[in-house]
Amino acid sequence: MNDKSHVSLEQHLCLVCGVPFDTGSLLLDRRLKASLEHRTTTGWGLCTEHQKMFDDGFVALIECDPQRSGAPSGNARLKPEQAYRTGRLAHLKRHVFAKIFNVPIADDQSCVFVEPGVIEKLQSSVAHAD
Ligand SMILES: [Zn+2]
After folding, report:
1. Ligand 1 center to residue 111 CA distance, Å?
2. Is the same domain home to 61 and 114?
3. Is residue 78 a part of any domain in this protein?
């Protein structure tokens, strides 16, 4: 049985949680041949939940295991598809992030990859901040 189709639901992977979600777009095979899977992942985006966090002014910290992530050479940024997510996440207001890490953060930057231990340390320091 051939379960391919000439239309496919486009999906993006959420940068933050790595979960695929529907973009609401349909992909169409130009020759109308049944060449497509039911769902096609075409890139990265933000799922509804994390888009909302981003809109609310949060930046997501995504913990990655550098041992298992595709090692970026030199100072190259880790690409989303190379990152091995540990599953630990944190959200910080952008200005808080900039203050704690002492780095400016671009308005369109929705997430930052951090090494194991960073989020834990952050949460314990935030917990004691009051
Ligand atoms: Zn998400």
Report:
1. 11
2. yes
3. yes
